[in-house]
Design a protein that fits this description.
binds alpha-methylisocitric acid, seven-stranded mixed β-barrel, 20 helices, 28% helix, six-stranded mixed beta sheet, alpha/beta, binds iron/sulfur cluster, single chain
Length: 656
C-alpha cells in the first residue's frame, strides 16, 4: 500500500516511535511561529531553558494579536519580543506586517516542511503542503530549542474533491461543508488530507482557508498536495526555489475517504454560537445585519479582498451596516493598493483596520447589543466578539459583501451581478522591510532583554500532590472553550502577567470563580474543575492551563477534551481525567468535596484511580489516557518544573 502525504512528511521527520496511528511519536520541527499573545510566556519559558540560540531552520515571532494598544502593557510586551528575537536569532514580524498565518504562508512556508506554532490556526500552511501544527507555547519553546514535538500519530482521512466551485461559492463554503460533515468534535488525532481532481481548481490561499478552519473540527492538522498551483503561488512570492512536489501515492492508504463535489456546494454559514452549526445562506436570507467584518487569518488574502472590492465597487455599505475590513498582511494591503481595489473598499465606506487579528479576537469592533455580525473569520463562540449577546455568523467574503450592500443576510447568487473573476498578479509587490532579521552576532548575548512592569517570571508549579483533597470549584457544561476559560479581547493585555490574568478565569461563566479558587487553595485544598464534552475547544492559549494552575487547580474532570488544551494541562502539571461513565457527571455538584487517595502513586504506576465524592458519599469511576512521558510530566508539576528540577539535580527524572 502506498503512503499519504501526511505519512510521508511525518516519516521523514520521525525522532521517536514509528508510523502507527494512535501511538505516541515525536517529530522534528523545521520552522516555528509564535504570536504576541502566546509569545511572551513562550519566550519566558524559552529563556528559562538556557538555550543560547534557536535551533530550527527558521523561527518567526509575529506581532499581530494585541496591536490595539490600550495601556502600556502590549507595547512593553512588543519591546520584550523584539529584544528576545535579536538575542536568540528569531525573525521578528513587526506590528503592521500582518497576521502570522497569512504572512507565514506568503513568506516562509514551504512544501513538505514541518511547522509548529503557538496558535491553533497554524495548520493554515497546510495549504502549501506543510505539516503545520498548533500547540501550546511551551511545546513551541521546546521545539525552538531543538527538541522534537510529541504527538499522537494521526489517523488520516482523505477528503476527495471533485468538480469545480460555482460562481459565488467559495473556499469558505468548502470548509463549512467539512464542518457540517465532521462536526467540531470526535476528530482528535486525525489529519484531513485533501486530494482528488478538484484540488487543482483551488489556489493556495483558498486551500489555506480550508486548512485554517480544520482547527474548528479539532483535527491535528489539514494538508494539501503541492502542485503546479503551489508553484505559481510561490513564483508570485519570488520563492520558486522553495517549491517541490508533494503528492500522495496513487494507492495511498487512508482510514476513511470522504468525497465533496465542489460543483454541488452552495453558500453556507456557521450560525451562532458554534462553527459547527451550519445552515445554507439561502435559509437565513433576510435577517437584518448590523455589522460586516471581513478579514482574519481565514479570509484576508489578495483574492478575498479584491473580490470584495469588485462586489462593492460603486456602492456604499447599507445605512444599518458598519463595515470593517482588515487585510491579512501588509503585502495584501500594498497589493490591493497598487491594483486600485483598496480605493474601491474605502469608497464603499469600509473602515480599513490594520493588517492584524483585530476584530477577530474581540479587542476592537465589538457589535452592538444583541446585534448581528457577519464575519469571514473562523470562530463565533458566544462573547468572543466583545459583545456578550451578539450573534455572529461566519460566512465567505462573497456572502459578507452581499450583506454589506443589502443590509441583510443575502445569498450572493441573488445579487444579480456577474461573478467577479480576479486576475492574480504574476508577481506580488514584495516588501520584507517590516521583518527584523536577526544579525549574526555571536549568540546575541550582547542584546539586553527589555522587560516592562507587566512582564512576570515564567510560571512555576509544585509537584503533583500525593493525595488529592479536592473541591469541585466549578462545574461547567459541554463545549466550554478556551475563550470561556480565560477570555481574550480586552483582557488579553495581561497575557504576560499571570497573577493579574488569573483574576479573569471563567469570567463569563462565573465571575466569582477566581476568588473562590484562591480561598480553596489557601485553605489547603485542591481545586478541581468539572466539565462536559470537548472541554477546552478553540484556541491554543496555554493560559487556559497556566492560570488555573496558578489558582491551585490540580485536576480537570471532563467528559472529553480537545487535543491542544489537554496537552497544555499536562504541560502545566494538571491531571486531565475523564468520566468512566458519562452519566456520573450528574453525581457531582459545585463545592462537593472530591478526594483521590494515593493519586500520585497510582499515576506513577499507571494504575486506575478511585475518586470519592465525600459530600455525596459516592464513588466515581475516572480514567486517564496519558503516555508514560505525560504521567511523569504531571507528577513533576509540569514540564518546566521537571526541567528545572533536572537542572538543579533534583530527584525527579527526565521525561526523555
Ligand atoms: C484565537 O483565535 O483564539 C487566538 C487568539 O488566535 C488563539 C491564540 C491565543 O489565544 O493567543 C488561538 O487560536 O490559538
Ligand atoms: Fe488572529 Fe483570529 Fe486568526 Fe486567531 S483566528 S490567529 S485571533 S485572526
Amino acid at each position: 500500500m502506498g503512503r499519504s502525504i501526511t505519512r510521508k512528511v511525518i516519516e521523514t521527520r520521525i525522532a521517536e516511535g514509528s508510523w502507527n496511528p494512535g501511538s505516541e511519536i515525536a517529530i522534528r520541527i523545521d520552522q516555528t511561529l509564535t504570536q504576541d499573545a502566546t509569545g511572551t510566556v513562550a519566550y519566558l519559558q524559552f529563556e528559562a531553558m538556557g538555550v543560547p540560540k534557536v535551533a530550527v531552520e527558521i523561527a518567526v515571532s509575529y506581532i499581530d494579536h494585541n496591536t490595539t494598544q490600550i495601556g502600556f502593557e502590549n507595547a512593553d510586551d512588543h519591546k520584550y519580543l523584539q529584544t528576545i528575537a535579536a538575542r536568540y536569532g528569531i525573525v521578528l514580524s513587526r506590528a503592521g506586517n500582518g497576521i502570522c498565518h497569512q504572512v507565514h504562508l506568503e513568506r516562509f512556508g514551504r512544501p513538505g516542511g514541518t511547522l509548529l506554532g503557538s496558535d491553533s490556526h497554524t495548520p493554515t500552511c497546510g495549504g502549501i503542503g506543510m505539516i503545520a501544527i498548533g500547540a501550546g507555547g511551551l511545546d513551541v519553546a521546546l521545539a525552538m530549542g531543538g527538541a522534537p514535538f510529541y504527538l499522537v500519530c494521526p489517523r488520516v482521512v482523505k477528503i476527495h474533491l471533485t468538480g469545480r466551485l460555482k460562481p459565488w461559492v467559495a473556499a469558505k463554503d468548502v470548509i463549512l461543508e467539512v464542518l457540517r460533515m465532521f462536526g467540531t468534535r470526535g476528530n482528535v488525532n486525525t489529519v484531513f488530507e485533501y486530494g482528488g481532481p478538484g484540488v487543482k481548481t483551488l489556489s493556495v490561499p483558498e486551500r489555506a482557508t480550508i486548512a485554517n478552519m480544520g482547527a474548528e473540527c479539532g483535527v491535528t492538522t489539514s494538508v494539501f498536495p503541492s502542485d503546479e498551483v503551489t508553484r505559481t503561488f510561490l513564483r508570485a512570492q519570488g520563492r520558486l526555489s522553495d517549491w517541490s512536489v508533494i503528492a500522495a501515492d496513487r494507492d495511498a492508504e487512508y482510514d476513511r475517504i470522504a468525497e465533496i463535489d465542489l460543483s454541488r456546494l452552495v453558500p453556507l454559514s456557521a450560525t451562532p454560537h458554534s462553527p459547527g452549526n451550519i445552515a445554507t445562506v439561502a435559509s437565513l436570507q433576510g435577517i437584518p445585519v448590523d455589522q460586516v467584518c471581513i478579514g482574519s487569518c481565514t479570509n484576508s488574502s489578495y483574492k478575498d479582498l479584491a473580490t470584495v472590492a469588485r462586489i462593492l465597487k460603486g456602492r456604499v455599505a447599507a445605512p444599518n451596516v458598519s463595515l470593517v475590513i482588515a487585510p491579512g498582511s501588509r503585502q495584501v494591503m500594498q497589493n490591493i493598493g497598487k491594483s486600485g481595489y483598496l480605493g474601491d473598499l474605502i469608497a464603499s465606506g469600509a473602515r480599513i483596520d490594520p493588517a492584524a487579528c483585530g476584530f477577530c479576537i474581540g479587542n476592537s469592533q465589538s457589535p452592538p447589543t444583541g446585534g448581528v455580525s457577519l464575519r469571514t473569520s473562523n470562530r463565533n463562540f458566544e462573547g468572543r466578539s466583545g459583545t456578550r449577546d451578539a450573534k455572529i455568523y461566519l460566512v465567505s467574503c462573497e456572502t459578507a459583501a452581499a450583506a454589506a450592500i443589502t443590509g441583510k443576510i443575502t445569498d450572493p447568487r441573488k445579487l444579480g451581478m456577474r461573478y467577479p473573476r480576479i486576475a492574480m498578479p504574476g508577481k506580488f509587490l514584495i516588501d520584507d522591510r517590516m521583518f527584523v532579521f536577526p544579525k549574526p552576532v555571536a549568540n546575541g548575548s550582547a542584546v539586553k532583554i527589555y522587560r516592562g512592569p507587566n512582564i512576570g517570571a515564567p510560571p512555576a508549579n509544585t509537584p503533583f500532590p500525593a493525595h488529592i483533597r479536592g473541591v469541585a470549584a466549578i462545574k461547567v457544561g459541554d463545549r466550554v472553550t478556551t475563550d470561556h476559560i480565560i477570555p481574550a479581547g480586552a483582557r488579553m493585555k495581561y497575557r504576560s502577567n499571570i497573577p493579574r490574568y488569573s483574576e479573569f478565569v471563567f469570567e463569563s461563566l462565573d465571575a466569582g470563580f477566581s476568588a473562590r479558587a484562591v480561598r480553596i487553595r489557601d485553605a489547603g485544598r485542591h481545586n478541581i474543575i468539572v466539565g462536559g464534552v470537548s472541554y477546552g475547544e478553540g484556541s491554543s492559549r496555554e493560559h487556559a492551563a497556566i492560570c488555573p494552575m496558578f489558582l491551585g487547580v490540580k485536576v480537570v474532570l471532563a467528559k472529553s477534551f480537545q487535543r491542544i488544551h489537554m496537552n497544555n494541562l499536562v504541560n502545566f502539571g494538571i491531571l486531565p481525567l475523564t468520566f468512566g461513565n458519562e452519566a456520573d457527571y450528574e453525581k457531582i455538584d459545585q463545592n462537593d468535596e472530591l478526594d483521590i487517595a494515593g493519586a500520585a502513586e497510582a499515576v506513577s504506576a499507571g494504575r486506575p484511580l478511585a475518586l470519592v465524592n465525600r459530600t455525596k458519599g459516592a464513588e466515581i469511576g475516572v480514567l486517564y489516557s496519558l503516555t508514560e512521558r505525560q504521567r511523569r510530566i504531571v507528577l513533576a508539576g509540569g514540564l518546566l518544573s521537571m526541567q528545572r528540577r533536572k537542572t538543579e539535580g533534583g530527584a525527579v527524572e527526565d521525561h526523555e
